[in-house]
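Exam revision sheet. Question 4 asks you to relate a sequence to its structure. Input first:
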Amino acid sequence: MSHSSRRFIPLCVLVSVLSWASAYPVVRLALRDLPPLPLAALRYALAALLAAMWLLVSRAPMPHWRDAPRLLACGFFGITLYNVFFNLGETTLSSGATSLVIATGPIMAGLLAVLFTQERVTGWGWLGSLTSFAGVAVIVSGQKEGLTFGSGAGMALIAAFCAAMYTVLQRPLVQRYGGLTGTAYVLMIGAFFLLPWLREGVAHLSHAPARAWWCVAELGLVPAVIGYGVWSFVIGALGAARGAMMLYFLPPVTFILAFLLEGVWPDLITLLGGVVVLLGVGMSRIKRDSKKAT
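Answer key, structure tokens:
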């Protein structure tokens, strides 16, 4: 990647964080009118339509058959499963708390990247990740359901694992096809797996207020198309482990957007956990581990 292209990485990270952070409160708003799985189907039907239009206009190359398993896995984990569990989690978990639970995704992505792609994370990176996970544990301790299977926090944690899988799996596709082309195919595959709930989603949306239509449009365009597209560039430039660390900035941005859109501010336990998460962010950004510093 050229030096001029690398100058855009901070801007791409900012756009990705802002767009993805908007999904947390907007999904909460949409769930007032739409069930979780039909909402996911509607959102990605729109995103897939926009992705298909872009592929046609740009005359993007067809993916090689050897990449089919990786593309299917990216679509299934990164789009379908992630959004199913994300939406289910937000039925009982607040926007801010959900963002903090999903902040464990970089920990999982770092481990998966070390195991499967030979990337390495510094000692400070691991320590920062564990510290942030401790902050997430504080958040979960304040939830009535706790961290059990079927609880909002449990669903969000599964979504975090799906996001980690996607982060690691997508990098070769970005290098081979480019960020936008690879992401467009992944969005369409994810939407295909959500088709069983699309008809129900259309039925619910036809009787829903204008707020639901606005939410579906925002979710399909901003976090899905723009967020995933720009993020693919970041992962291609930084790698899965380093890129995933940037997602720790999602919770504080989500808190602000949730307050602006929902009028909801996190409680004291959530704020305390958030402080610990942010402390982990700072630690994970230290580039040298203790051995290199000596």
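Marking note for examiners. Residues 288-294 have pLDDT under 50 and may be disordered.
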